[in-house]
Amino acid sequence: MAAASLAAKPAAEPSLRRSVTPWGSFSWGYSDVGADIFVGLGLVLGTAAGASNVAFLFAGIVYVCIGLAYTELAAAYPVAGGGQYFVFRGLGDIFGFIAGWAVLLDFTIDIVLFAWSCIDYLSKLLPFLGYVDHPWVHFLVVFSLIGGLALLNIIGVRESSAFNEFVSGLDVVSETTILFFGFLFAFQPQLLIHTMTVSWPSPFSLMNGVSLAIISFVGLESISQAAQETQRPASVIPRTSISLILTILIFALAYSNLALGMQPWHAIPPDAHGHAQELWQYLGNENNNGAAVAVLASYVPYFGTIAALYVPVLGAILLLISSNSGVFGSSRIAYAMSGTQLLPSIFQRVHPKFRTPAVSILTFCGFAIVELIFASLPRLSAPVKAIYARLFRGEDGITFLGDLYAFGAAASYSFVFIALIALRLNDSQSPRRFKMPFNVPFTFKGNRVEFPLVAVIGFFGIVSILVFTMITHEIGRIAGPLWIVLGIVGYLFYRRRKRLPVFGSQPHDWRKAQINILQEAGELEMMDEYLVNVKRMDAARTTIRETLR
Amino acid sequence: MRNLVRSEGYARARLVTGSIAMVLGAILIVRTLAATGLAFKALPACVLGGAMIALGVVRFRDYTAARRGRP
Predict the structure, then answer these.
(1) Domain spanning A2-512 has what CATH number?
(2) Cβ under 8 Å to B: A residues 235-274
(3) A536-546 pLDDT tens trace
(4) CB-based contact (8 Å) between B16 and chain A?
(5) Cβ–Cβ contact A172 with B under 8 A
(6) For chain B, which residues make up each domain, given as ranges?
(7) How far is CA A102 from the centre of its chain?
(8) What is the pTM of this model?
């Protein structure tokens, strides 16, 4: 992919500048994955009810496995492209395409879901932006926001990384303070257990909740996508990734436990029918599920008074950054896939004046707009609402988008686990400064390799979430696979037309690519180690061949 | 921001917050187990406590590594 082509360039050609520090690497990942809990909390509370913390726990365990896999791969192959590159390298062209195509689905939803939730958070301060009461205003504002982000990306304006780092730092402090006050003054373990006992959901709702909980953990791959710009990636990425994995896991588990076991500072308003409701029910209803963290923060004793004023703004900024990362990420992945002939060359076209991949940006922002229309339609048109009620159990808005997001994430992560196992077996020469724990050593094709047991656990975990998504979400079951199938049909047609291997792969010189990758990363010790490993492996193979003769 | 996160004061602050996370994690586990005993429903809160302790350990290791001058 990008890295392969980049690795083949002479060293004198310009490449991405390595300016990302350990903190920069952390904040890069945090600004993407840290925003997810702002969206995921309300959705999961609305479906998994008293088992929301269990749903987050299950998804969190899978997420830890995903995080460890990405950490190992990004430290061993520090190139831009993330999961798509790992699958492309480990499993070949067609699987590289499918993984990239699933990531592209996720990025387009990322654009609209986070733009949507950004406006939901702002609506806590500006009620006229609310989706339920003012759907047309909400739709037009989200539409304009996506259009504005597309325009900024075409012009080439990005948020400064210093701003990113500042917002991430502020958010970590803010979320920690909310949780600190909440657990210190309002958390009651007895209430948590009572809620879990009385409001335990049906198995169907629990599966639904687990499949939505995974969206709170999507985005960790940002660290691996920034690997090509990270200083000393092999040592920095494992440190920042582990910190990020733990931070996000703690936030997700803490918010869900707090929401179920917190005694709110103020009385909760009754529901639409005048019935009393618990805090978690209030957070999960359609008015609040898009901005649950801000609502929860406002019910925290003492600190809630201040939090009610600034958390909606901070959340909106973080969500806007995340939405922008969707615009940026989708266009760059499409550009890179085009470079390795997985997508047509039109996606490599850059704007003559601004030198940005304008076609890719417009295409994937266009997909995002289509998704926005499908998500908003039921509120905008009564006949469509009736159709959705019949076909999709009435799912609309943020739930609609959450379904597709869960499908795209689960599909692409499944391939990353398989790629990790394949690369462990077929590329044992590449030095790995970080390895997933619990490995079984054995001999494969004459080489000593280590089989990663955690990758197998993670694979079954993420596949089960994919299955939950297919079982519980009508939209995810239809639109998700349809996206993949249409992509594969287009890929086959394109490869046949270009007379390229349709199901096979083009020849790649991975050895040369790996040497260039490590050289450009400044990981010269790893490069020397790689060269020694390669020579040793070649010598062993020669000896075996001569013995056989 | 970058100057701040490179400073020794920031490393010490991380060590302090990491230590607080370890203490809070331990308190959470003890309080939950005291309220429920060894029950399945205590698992999410106990895992949360365990993750907070692990975060404290990671920050302690980062601090010692930073003192040794690791990049």
Answers:
(1) 1.20.1740.10
(2) 235-236, 239, 242-243, 246-247, 249-250, 253-254, 256-257
(3) 888 887 887 78
(4) no
(5) no
(6) 2-67
(7) 11
(8) 0.87
